[in-house]
Amino acid sequence: MTSTVSTSTVLDFTDVALGYGDFTVLQHINLQVAPGQVVALMGGSGSGKTTLLRAATGQIVAQAGTITAFGQDLAALNAEQLQHMRKRMGVLFQHGALFTDLNVFENVAFPLREHTKKSEIEISRLVLEKLDAVGLRAAAHLSISEISGGMARRVALARAIVLEPELILYDEPFAGLDPISLGITAQLIRDLADQLNCASIIITHDVPESFKIADHVYIVGQGKLITHGTPEQLSASTDAYVQQFLHGKPDGPIAFNYPVTPAFERWLAQKKL
Ligand SMILES: Nc1ncnc2c1ncn2[C@@H]1O[C@H](COP(=O)(O)OP(=O)(O)OP(=O)(O)O)[C@@H](O)[C@H]1O
């Protein structure tokens, strides 16, 4: 656990509602992430985790409330300002595809070549430094077809941090990893947050692994923020939803059925059943 969490806020959601068209996925979301902090965002399938991530990067605008990143209200930024702001964020998608025609080194160098005017020497230094951080310095020369799935995930992670973002968003970073790669990846996320003092949000279903590294956990469901707290606080919670979620119990308040939306009702009405 980090002890150096600053009081400033990198990302702030204040009473935010999010959705698509006339469908509201989440309401009354309050969430803050500080430099160096690792925040886990959890919730059942379709509960709105990816939607929250899209809102954090300004891909979708809030239906209500305010989202600020680095102190700037996202709704007030134009396309160019948003673009500029996104350079301060690193996003690691679950299927963060690497360029298969480039080797490991060139994959990590890509954002530096795209967004900076650094010299070749400087690029080499930074790329090898980031590959070292994920334990793959000596894999720099390999082609993507020569590395394993777990290694590919770590290369994608090195690429996501090469511009030294102040906020990193991880979309299901543990999905599909074997237990050893999973443990290594989780520890890497923690170490990077500590070393770079970057704020980190991980979307994950993995309770044990995320509880080991997170400073704060948010659980969404039923269209709202169910609860949040430190892993210790949530583990001690007696709330039925939290218990069902943390222990994967089949019975409890978490609905199995996908919720009825206005779009579904319109579609069903057309069927004249
Ligand atoms: N582009 C879109 N247009 C309309 N509805 C969408 C869109 N993307 C997602 N949704 C809906 O928003 C809700 C939340 O989806 P979201 O992808 O945020 O959930 P999630 O928590 O990330 O789920 P999972 O864990 O299964 O990936 C779902 O009901 C989904 O159908």
From TrEMBL:
Keyword entries, A-Z: ATP-binding, Cell membrane, Membrane, Nucleotide-binding, Transport
CDD domains: ABC_Org_Solvent_Resistant
Coiled coil location: none
Molecular functions per Gene Ontology: ATP binding
PROSITE patterns to which the protein is assigned, alphabetical: ABC_TRANSPORTER_1, ABC_TRANSPORTER_2
Residues of the ABC transporter domain: 11-247
Pfam families, per database record: ABC_tran
This protein's name: ABC transporter ATP-binding protein
